[in-house]
Amino acid sequence: MSDTSARLADELKPFLEAVAHAVAYGLGADALEPGGERRKADASRRAVEILRAAGALDTPVDAGALDAAARRLLDDRALLAAFFQNLDLLYQHRAPRADVVSRLLMRVMEL
Question: Within 10 A of 95 (CB to CB), how many other CB atoms are there?
């Protein structure tokens, strides 16, 4: 990961943590539930892969790459729900690529 993408990943950290927690534990689930940390790490990895594919961690991507990232997110319903649920955190924390994630979610809605 480049220095720029590492910095952007740090700036997206509150969003990524909230997304991973929502996917790993669901609504009302016990955070001490066995296997939760493994599910959380897996959800975080999937979220980073999609954000990278959408251009939120590195240089901007073309429309085809954004479409591919949107389709991947659409196929991962739990992750998609968590992205929508936590989108406001990107703006609350003034993440520089919040608009990229918003554009990704808008593209998902168009599919």
Answer: 20
Taking only the tens place, the pLDDT of each residue in 26-76 is 866 666 667 788 999 999 999 999 999 999 887 777 889 999 999 999 999
Q: Which sign does the torsion angle of CA 101, 68, 16, 36 carry?
A: positive
For the whole model, what pTM was predicted? 0.86
The Cα–Cα gap between 82 and 108 comes to: 13
Among 45, 51, 54, 50, smallest CA distance to 24 is for: 45
Cα 13 from Cα 7, distance rounded (Å): 10
Q: Which of 15, 21, 27 is nearest to 87 (CA)?
A: 15
* HSE-up of residue 6 (Cα within 13 Å, Cβ side): 3
Segment 94-108 shows an average pLDDT of: 93
